Structure formats: structure tokens, C-alpha cells
Amino acid sequence: TTQQAYTVPTENAKPGPTATLAAPGAGDSITVAAINAKRYIDVTFESHDGSAVNKNTITVGAAPFKLSGTGIADLAVDANGFPIIVGSPLLLKGDAADAKKVTYRFFLKDKNTANSIDVFQAGSVTVTFAAGAFTAGAAVASTGTTSTFTIDPNAPGAATGDGSVNLGPLT
What we know:
There is one protein chain. By secondary structure, the protein is mainly β. Helix content is 6%, strand content 28%. It contains two helices and ten strands; from the N terminus they run ββαβαβββββββ. The chain has helices at 32-38, 56-59, and strands at residues 18-23, 29-30, 40-46, 65-68, 90-93, 101-107, 123-129, 135-136, 140-141, 145-151. The strands form three sheets. The protein has a four-stranded antiparallel beta sheet with strand order 1-3-6-5. Strands 2-10-7-4 form a four-stranded mixed beta sheet. The chain starts with 17 loop residues before the first strand and ends in a 20-residue tail after the last strand. The relative contact order is 0.26.
């Protein structure tokens, strides 16, 4: 089991909502081909004070996170460094109006589709969830957190071998 501790501003205050990586998960490894084929990350947003997550603060405006690290190759970002999201975030879990835990898929944009460089490359990617980027309840602001995943050419699921296929004699 995992235990988490939260820092609150005053005694008896409830913690603000948090965001965590759902896929790839924090600490996970994924191949370059797999993440560039998907070109998205899934994020779970969770309220810790019993109030519903305010979905509008997640789906309207800039992405509630930044991506950085050696695994970023050709990601389109806005003037403030937030990734440009293709379309609207897709709600995967938590569609009830009073959901206290929701998961969204964020489709990421390639900065320059005319070049041969994809969004990701081998390396580490840190996802920084900005404090106050989303809310739960009336106005309980989120706490800032970071998570990291690795893009590894040798991650499980990576292609192995020399690429040749031997079918044997065909009659």
C-alpha cells in the first residue's frame, strides 16, 4: 500500500486536489515508438477534501502541466511553456458531476510536422503540475507536484532482432 502526506496551510485545513500521471505512470518506461504513436498522456486529478473536482478548470484554458526533460524533442508549447493540446482533453473516468477523481487524456501537438523529428525521443520526461492550475469545490486550489517517466528504446515491448522474417519454403 502507498501512503501520502499533504501539507496544509493551517491546522484542520483540508489538502488541495492533486494531479498524478496515469499513463504512462510515474516511474514507468515506455518505448519511443509507443509514446510517439499515441502522442498523449493520461492524468488523474483527485480531490482530497470531499468536494468534486472542478472539470472546467482542467478542460478550459492552458494545460494544467508542463513537460520538460531530455525526452522532449519537438513538442509544441505556448508562450508560457505549457504544451499545446490538440482538441479538448478527453474525459476517460469520472463522468459524474460530483466526481472526486477524474482522469483525462491530453493529446499533444508536434511543433513542426514538416520535419522528421517526433514529439518525444529517448530520455526522461518530467511532468510538472502547477500549484493552483485546477480546483475542487468552490475554490480549493491544487497543490503543485511533479512526476517523471522514461522513454527507453529497450523498454518492455520494444522491437528486438534484425527485422528479417523467414517464412520457410512456400509450396
